[in-house]
């Protein structure tokens, strides 16, 4: 073991850790605001990466069908309520956003597969196809159960996770994809090669984290989300609807997931079910932060990344075992040091 | 018994409640409660612990399902009325537990009080906040402090200030004097009196009957879920039944 390998492994660990950190933040966000343990977080990583890959391969990504199906479901669910309440003025935007735009996207993709577009445009299209799935899933699966216990919400999460994996196999097939790197740049750091893509991942993750920090600290919508997490009743009394908070959260979570997927697609081969393991590692980070603290969750996730990278070198057969075993001492320490808090009654 | 208040002021009726019933399972917490609140009035509901006062406010605010007729600002409210819709139309509740955002600054708590106004396109939060600071200078001194670190009196002030940020038409206060020192209570009630001048209607639920009746225009006595007495507050304060049960013979309660 020399310095070069040490640096190389560290580089790898930090790159993966940055992605895990993003996912850990999304998990903490969704849990604190909606009490949902968002198991399908990882599926958004896979969907983001594979949607981009199918666009680049000149195929119409199956994501667009899911978008259309969920959009129609949302339109029916909300449409019935609006008609019953006589609020017809709200019908056109509902139909345009949930059915019109997905149809337009499907038509656009069929008419002109965006293989020739620059990479940035392809990334934007992939995000636009994947991110709306977040709030739509909230509307269809979680909103009717807003008052349910954490356990029921967790069971729903598992169901969505399984469904998304199955659909992922249907949409993208069993073979993995890897997208071309965003940049071919390469540097040398103390004798070890440093890929431009690695720097890009770390810089993009860090800027996203800083952006999230400003969103939560400086904007009234960010503050409203924090307020909902702190005191649900208080937030409702201020006219912050739990539904708005939930949709906003899942939009952010889906965006973070899809963006992470697009970032790592050039580094690792992503399969339809790769998201789960990646999300689970973010989850370990989130657990280290007690599903409550953003900075601890992010640092925990980076630690997971480093641990994974070094253990893959020393004991590669036990890589996952070592990473997930980390959760046991953390849980032990947490349960010994923290007082038991009763679940909030609604 | 006639429990509709006489038209002391010919003001616009803000809230008109008839035969409100709330049940927790089979246990009825409120039975046929009726009350009326007009613009610029302070109406108080006094009564002992467990009489259903907090339940009444929760039902009015839409936090609990209730039967009966609730007409707010001329609109009849359905059984599935939503808190958010009522907030949008100027109804605010300062709950007994204050429900502040403990890990946020005083300023952010206040700002979120105007969340719905911001969402509907109003951008006058800073001016409203200055008005709130005028009413509660203590909050201005503490503006960057976390709400969780405030004293009891300051928390009550913040909860009231946060509600005022929504520019309410009806302000409902649940036990604002709860757990506060006498001097602070006096200050809080002085401010409630000042708010009356702004034209906001105030529904004040209190166990501290003496202070509440002093400041209110009209009062209701709620006992085991029913209105047992109602009348202009001076009359109530002079009623032997109220004196015996809630005011004591010249001895200050608490």
TrEMBL record, chain A:
Pfam (any one) = BPD_transp_2
**Which keywords accompany this UniProt record?**
Amino-acid transport, Cell membrane, Membrane, Transmembrane, Transmembrane helix, Transport
Write out the GO cellular component annotations. Answer: plasma membrane
For this protein, the record's InterPro entries field holds: ABC_transp_permease (IPR001851), BCAA_transport_permease (IPR052157)
Q: Per the record's keyword annotation, is Transmembrane included, yes or no?
A: yes
Q: Any one Gene Ontology biological process term?
A: amino acid transport
* GO molecular function terms listed in the Swiss-Prot or TrEMBL record: transmembrane transporter activity
Give TM regions.
20-42, 62-83, 95-113, 119-138, 150-174, 194-216, 248-271, 283-306, 313-333
Locations listed in the record = Cell membrane
The membrane topology term of the UniProt record is: Multi-pass membrane protein
Family under the similarity heading: Belongs to the binding-protein-dependent transport system permease family. LivHM subfamily.
Would you tell me the protein name for this molecule? ABC transporter permease
